Amino acid sequence: MLPPPPQWLPAIAPWLDLAGLVVFAASGALAAAKRGQTIVTLSFFALVTGVGGGTVRDLLISAPVFWIHDSRAAAACLIVAFAVWLTPAGWWRGAALDWFDAVGLAAYSVFGAAKAIGYGVPPVPAALMGVVTACVGGIIRDVLAGVPSILLRPEIYVTAAALASGLYVGLGLAGVPLPVAAVAGALAGFALRAAAIHWKLALPAYQQVSERSD
């Protein structure tokens, strides 16, 4: 049996939500900054990247769209964009965007799954809602930036989100205290994504077999 819905949003949940929001907003602002855009564009990228996945999740689980009803979410995205705008470009060279994205991916995967179960979604769809929460914002960012979406690259990304949300849900069902399950899921998802970034890990791609001529 699942615990009553409120128990699936442990005390650590707001911190996971904030961590995911802030770092995804930063990754969106950085994507615009690397292309020499204005503060307005940085702010827009930060907002849509920060709230994109959570918006789709809330619509799918019939929850109030979180940032429409709480102005702190949008304000945090705009503050992050302004902070990126003020910092030297040299701070953000290399894989900074990837690492920000990895932290957001892990935190948002767990929070998305927890919120979905809190709204009565069964375990498997709830874990998938964690993946949606973690991945959709980054997909929107990539499309707006005109780069190939992470879904079209073989590197491990969605798998890391699935590990984080699935492990959280699985540990919760097994009776592990939810704060422990949340931390374990987030750390596992981040570790897998970090390994993929560092060692360029990727899943096997589909191999097209050419037709033999008669």
Summarize the structure in words:
The chain is mainly α and 214 residues long. 69% of the residues lie in helices and 0% in strands. Helix 7 packs antiparallel against helix 8. The longest helix is centred in the middle third of the chain and has 23 residues. It is globular, with a radius of gyration of 18 Å. The N terminus is likely disordered.
Uncertain parts: 1-6
Average of pLDDT: 89
Order of helices and strands: HHHHHHHH
Distance between the termini: 59 Å
The count of strands amounts to: 0
> How much helicity do the residues have?
55-70%
What Rg do the Cα atoms give?
18 Å
Estimated structural class: mainly alpha
Main beta sheet: none
The number of helical elements comes to: 8
Strand content: under 5%
Global outline: globular
Summarize the structure.
With 214 residues, the protein is an all-alpha fold.
How is this fold's topology laid out?
Blueprint: H1 13-33, H2 39-60, H3 66-69, H4 71-86, H5 96-118, H6 123-145, H7 158-173, H8 178-199
Helix pairs in contact: 1-2, 1-4, 1-5, 1-6, 2-4, 2-6, 5-6, 5-7, 5-8, 6-7, 7-8
Essential attributes:
single chain, 214 residues
